[in-house]
Write a structure and sequence with these properties.
The protein is an alpha/beta fold and about 220 residues long. Helices cover about 35% and strands about 20% of the residues. D-xylitol-5-phosphate (DX5) binds near residues 143 and 174.
Length: about 220
């Protein structure tokens, strides 16, 4: 099974996002956290910055939309050229329709669960998705401590994916570092977002490699 590392630009230097993207060019994806100050109590970047990164970063974008009304706003991120667009199911009015719209616009469709949102009610939706994101912190900020209590949910999500034989990536986001990546991989995650662990490292590129090797060894 493949392991994918997606450094989160939330912890990068916002005055030089293209330069920061180059420091992690060995990464599989670049994770862009879009926050609207409503779904989460923080405000980051939106479509114009994503459009610039599509042009200026050599790595495909993994856009994580922490916004209200994703049914209305998310398709434009796929249209802009993001390779993967993830919406939060708690905010979506029609997640199946939205996932189909994202795929129809050429993006991979991701669906995210806040820590208090269980995976089981969404079992029947999983074939409509390319990625399921299990948040391992409350969304909104980088640098928070990993929530160990999410490990059972990762395991249950993995069991559902395997039971249905789905080609669905299982992503974790929040507090992922050399201290926690193995626990996530053992529980069944295959796609890892890391912000402060990567961009807080002296050598972000080397940290991407180290995270990938640790996850691969633990899977
Ligand atoms: C938090 C964001 C994360 C954040 C992770 O709401 O979704 O992507 O950047 O940051 P770390 O890896 O520092 O927890
Ligand atoms: Zn994120």
């Amino acid at each position: 099974m493949g392991i994918r590392i997606s450094p989160s630009l939330l912890s990068a230097d916002f005055t030089d996002l293209a330069g920061e993207a180059r420091r992690v060019e060995g990464a599989d994806w670049l994770h862009v956290d879009v926050m609207d100050n409503h779904f989460v109590p923080n405000l980051t970047v939106g479509l114009p910055v994503v459009e610039a990164l599509v042009r200026g970063a050599g790595t495909p974008l993994d856009c994580h939309l922490m916004i209200e009304e994703p049914d209305r706003w998310a398709p434009a991120y796929a249209e802009a050229g993001a390779g993967s667009v993830t919406f939060h199911v708690e905010a979506a009015a029609a997640p199946v329709r939205l996932a189909r719209e994202l795929r129809g616009r050429g993006a991979r469709a991701g669906m995210a669960l806040r820590p208090a949102t269980p995976v089981e009610p969404f079992e029947d939706l999983l074939p409509e998705l390319d990625m399921l994101l299990v948040m391992t912190v409350e969304p909104g900020f980088g640098g928070q401590a990993f929530l160990d209590v999410m490990l059972p949910k990762i395991r249950r999500a993995r069991a559902l994916i395997d039971r249905h034989g789905l080609d669905l990536w299982l992503q974790v986001d929040g507090g992922v570092s050399m201290d926690t990546v193995e626990r996530c991989a053992e529980a069944g995650a295959d796609t890892f977002v890391a912000g402060s662990a990567v961009f807080g490292a002296d050598d972000p590129g080397a940290m991407v490699t180290a995270l990938r090797e640790a996850a691969a060894a633990a899977r």
